[in-house]
Amino acid sequence: MDRDTVRHRSTGQSASGGGDEKHTKNVVDEPEEETGDAGSFRWTTLIRVLAGVIVTFVFIPGLLLLLVSLTVPAPINPVMISVPEPPKLEGALEVNDLLTRGERLFENEILGPESIVFHKGHMYTGTTDGKIVDIKDGKISVLATLGKPPCENEPNCGRQLGLRMHEGSLYVLDAYRGLFKISVETGKSELLLSEIDGEKPALLNNLDIDSNGIIYLTDSSVKWQRSQFLYSVLEGSGDGRLIRFDPHKNVTEELIGGLHFANGVQLSPDEDFVLVAETTYSRILRYHLKGPKKGQVDTFVENLPGLLDNIRPSSGGGYWLCDALPRGPGFSLFDFLAPRPLIRKLLTQLLSLETMLKFWAPSTVVYELNSQGEIIRSFWDVHQGRLGGCSEVNEHDGVLYTGSFHSPFIGKYDLKKMKKA
Q1: Residues whose CB is less than 8 angstroms from the CB of residue 197 and which lie 6 or more positions away in sequence, other chains included
Q2: What are the Strictosidine synthase conserved region domain coordinates in residue numbering (predicted)?
Q3: From CA 61, how far away is CA 3, in angstroms rounded?
Q4: Helix, coil or strand: residue 234
Q5: Sign of dihedral through CA atoms 372, 283, 227, 246?
Q6: Domain that holds residue 62
Q7: Omega of the bond prior to 75 within 30 degrees of 0, cis?
Q8: Rounded mean pLDDT of 43-47?
Q9: What CA–CA distance (Å, rounded) separates 409 from 105?
Q10: pLDDT tier at 211 (50, 70, 90 boundaries)?
């Protein structure tokens, strides 16, 4: 083959005129068609993936939750709980670590010392097994047993909550069994009150006694038992009450009704009013016993930093409080759930009481109010959970002793050491 023939064959395609230009254009256009198809494929794939994610993580769970809400019986019938935004943690409420400096007394030797009383060198408290114990010189002995085993059945065994001392006798409020008077000398007990308005209570909580022996006590809920207290809080219905009981005449009188988990009780130093903690609404109400406002109810303090429990006097003329469930710092699960009754209802359909209690925050705050209801100082433990769910603060000889309805110890905090570094 000669050189001219080779040259002709190598250049013939480009020299063939318009047809060759058309062929060249087709060759150039083919990659554009492939790019469009690939882009369409990618968008289709992305849409399919997103649809799968929505179905898997939104639609199916939503459908399951709907089925649960329609088929699983709900133990509660929740209502709207209207609480203000939690208070700012500044000034007297500034977060600190002062509670981490305390001691745990009798750790793992007692369980659930809800309330504490001091009398002539003795410390008295109740435990989860239906016993009232006497602590003297570091030794624990049983003063009285109010319930009967087995304690797996709490109503049968009893659950001692509020304790007070009056004229040398110990008064104990059992959530299920009623009000008892116990001799600290012999341990002999006397049942003073077992029914209110002809019905047996199941969530009697706290009490105080005036100088004439008249007893003020709270019935936290007429619907729920003590072991179901969380249902009462989550439901938000006002079925608690403050009761006045005259043991001399064996007469009870409802002073305040419609309370949202009525809890701690404390008379003023002059006994001209009685305070009652309304746990669900993080506030304390005041019932006037004397003066021009006698028989009237007003708010003593509101929007407290947590869901409070008992109230006890301070040496400064004010009151000690502690919160079993603080509303801060950080995210407050209670404040999130309060205006969302449907979510609260669904939680009780999905989770057992035992499971929900595991979400109980380990953080704790103890604070002191002055006589006007103003917070003047606070002690915190937001990380270590050393206090373990406080129910009561009792000041004795310059030391704070804290109780808890579920912890296996009593907390001890020397006020002289509770100063910011």
Answers
A1: 252, 254
A2: 205-292
A3: 78
A4: helix
A5: positive
A6: 3-71
A7: no
A8: 73
A9: 6
A10: very high
